[in-house]
Amino acid sequence: MNNEFELIIGWLYPTLMSTYGDRGNVICIERRCQWRGYGVKVLPLDQNATVSDIGGVDLIVGGGAQDRQQEIVMRDLQGAKAEALREKIENGTPGVFTCGAPQLLGRYYEPGIGERIEGLGLLDMVSVHPGENARRCIGNLVVEVTASRLARDLAEMTGSKAFLIGFENHGGRTKLGKVEALGRVVYGLGNNGEDGGEGAFYQNAIATYSHGPLLPKNPFVADWLIQTALRLKYQQSITLSPLDDRLAMQAREAMFKRLKVNLPNVAAANVQ
Ligand code: GLN
Q1: What is the pLDDT of residues 168-208, one digit of tens each?
Q2: Is 211 a catalytic site residue?
Q3: H helices within 92-159, ranges in order?
Q4: How far is the CA of 21 from the centre of ligand 1 (A)?
Q5: Which among 13, 196, 203, 254 has the fewest CB atoms less than 10 Å away?
Q6: What is the pTM of this model?
Q7: Cα(45)–Cα(55) distance, rounded to whole angstroms?
Q8: How far apart are CA 185 and CA 205, in angstroms?
Q9: Catalytic residue selected from 28, 33, 99, 137
Q10: Do the Cβ atoms of 10 and 25 come closer than 8 Å?
Q11: What number of other Cβ atoms are within 10 A of residue 58's Cβ?
Q12: CA–CA distance from 120 to each of 24, 107, 108 (Å)?
């Protein structure tokens, strides 16, 4: 055991925000810590969470939600709790936020039905659902990571350019302001199906429309989150030991093939 290291994963509103397999992201981080002998705890950050609960987490995961649940969360996450979450993210706590979660970190979300809901304003972006009759953005998603620091870190960890494979299912369309996009859409729709951008990257927060198989399908991103969290917590240059990710890599290749996405060096890409 290597349990001089321990990470606390804060999971935002697990019962309200975990659509389309988003808990897979939590399980993936948890297992990859355990396989390396690190201590790991999962702490739900829900209506019962205190400001000090939020302050004590090392890594944050937030999933998607239907508009109704999202509204409940956005109304709960106000005041001191919102401030605590804002402070964590501003101070570099890494996190992965999917679909509804980035919408609540943005300036506002306008649901298909009902009133605009104010977000935390942490990410300079707005999301608008064009109404119940508009087509949802559903399907597989392939993204080239372009957020500069993340792209550099992932290339350093894996030896090649990072492409993410995921699955999106959202009604809201997101437009970015000054915040950097996570990446460029290679296959799928991403933020709005128009400008070719997908997600956002701010401090160490990854915002994406890719749902919960994101980390299992792209395990190097889980490792980036773990490594970033450990370095921040222990203030040492920690490098993670490699794990056997052959199955995940085969799954990636199979998906790229199925979607007829021809990426340079895909077979070798992202194998550690
Ligand atoms: N309610 C949001 C939308 O439709 C988020 C959906 C989700 O998280 N899957 O855009």
Answers
A1: 999 999 999 999 999 999 999 999 999 999 999 999 999 99
A2: yes
A3: 100-105, 148-158
A4: 13
A5: 254
A6: 0.95
A7: 11
A8: 19
A9: 99
A10: no
A11: 25
A12: 25, 6, 8
